Amino acid sequence: MTAIKGLLVMDVDSTLVQEEVIDLLGEEAGVGKQVAEITERAMRGELDFQQALAERVATLKGLPESIFDKVYARIHFNKGAKKLVNELHARGYKIGLVSGGFHETVDRLAEEAEIDYVKANHLEIRDGILTGRTYGDIVTKDIKVQKLRDWAAENELSLNQTVAMGDGANDLPMIQLAGIGIAFCAKPIVREQAPYQIKEPDLYKVIEILDEVNI
C-alpha cells in the first residue's frame, strides 16, 4: 500500500459546494429567510453554533424525508472541486469533509466526488418525517479539530502534513491547527485570522498554495 503523503479536511457548505444546504431546506419549509439569517449570524461568529443549529432544525419539523432529493438537485459543487480531489488523490492525499450540515446530503456529495472521510450531523426522521431534531454528536468547531487530528493519526501523518479549509467561524480552529490553513471565500473573521486565502470560488487554487509551500 502506498504511504499517504497528506490530508485535506474541508467544510462543505459554501466551501465544497456553493450553497448552504440548511438554507435550501429552510426554503422548502417556507422559512428560508429566517433560516438564512440565523446561518449568516452563526458563520460570522455572533451566535453559538449548536444553539443556531437547533433553532434552524426546529423549523424543518414536519417535512417529508423526500425533501433531500429535491434539495440535492439544487446543490452545485464549487468550481474545481472534483479536479482538486482527483489531483490530491494522485499526489497521495486523503480528503475528509467536516460539516455542520447533514449526512443525508453530505454522504451523497462525498460519494459523487470520491471523498475518503465524512463527519456531519444527523437529522432525526420518524415514519418518513423530520422531527425538527438532530441525534448524535453535533459537529462543532471542536469536533472539526478532532476529526483533523483523528484522520491524520489514522494515516500516520503529523499535523504539519495536513491542510484545513473553510469559510465560517466554526472552521477557524482547524484552519489554525493545520499545517496549511486556508480561508475559502470566507467571512471577515476567518479572512483576518487564516494563514492563507482563496478569494475566488475556485477550489483548484488549493493546488497553487500547496505548490507554493511545497508540501
UniProtKB/TrEMBL annotation:
One of its GO terms (molecular function) is hydrolase activity. Its cofactor is Mg(2+). Keywords: Amino-acid biosynthesis, Hydrolase, Magnesium, Metal-binding, Serine biosynthesis. Pathway: Amino-acid biosynthesis; L-serine biosynthesis; L-serine from 3-phospho-D-glycerate: step 3/3. The keyword Magnesium applies. It is an enzyme of class 3 (hydrolase). It catalyses: O-phospho-L-serine + H2O = L-serine + phosphate; O-phospho-D-serine + H2O = D-serine + phosphate. It comes from the Bacteria. It holds the Pfam family HAD. The keyword Amino-acid biosynthesis applies. Its EC number is 3.1.3.3. Belongs to the HAD-like hydrolase superfamily. SerB family. This is phosphoserine phosphatase.
